Amino acid sequence: MKYFYLILVLIILSCKSDVKKKNQPPIALSENSKDELEIYDFDGFKKFLNKNDDKIYVINFWATWCAPCVKELPYFEKLNAIYENKNVEVVLVSLDFPHLYESKLKPYIKNKNLKSKVVALDDPDMNSWIPLVSQEWSGSIPATVIYNKDKKQFYEQSFTYAELEKEVNQFLKQ
What is the pTM of this model? Predict the structure, then answer.
């Protein structure tokens, strides 16, 4: 019986805690840069999905390991550059694995000189937060939410620039 308690104690002590910081401190993209990678769990991130101001928000879920995501990122960057003076804000939400932030995500952001806001969503409980983004979302990426204070639209697809611009213009015409 004493071995049972010893094994039980060892098991309990060896388990990792699942407690996450809601808003982890930003990770600098380079030592000399003011650019930082903001990392959120879903509770911290959901503020990006619920802004109620005069802007149009384009929230794109992507990852460096997702070929269709990487292919369409220049379209979101172009949209951000052309429409930033028209009250449109693009937010690129990386779903990269945390162990890839240093080796893949941060170098990708820096090498591609991404100008859109990039945040990392680090919340492993996808089954609970995916339906909160959209009931229509199966969880595959790329996926995009475009919204303003009056309307919200979800897209589980890749975009060409023309398709993306057409969708955003529907929000501008309101």
Answer: 0.80
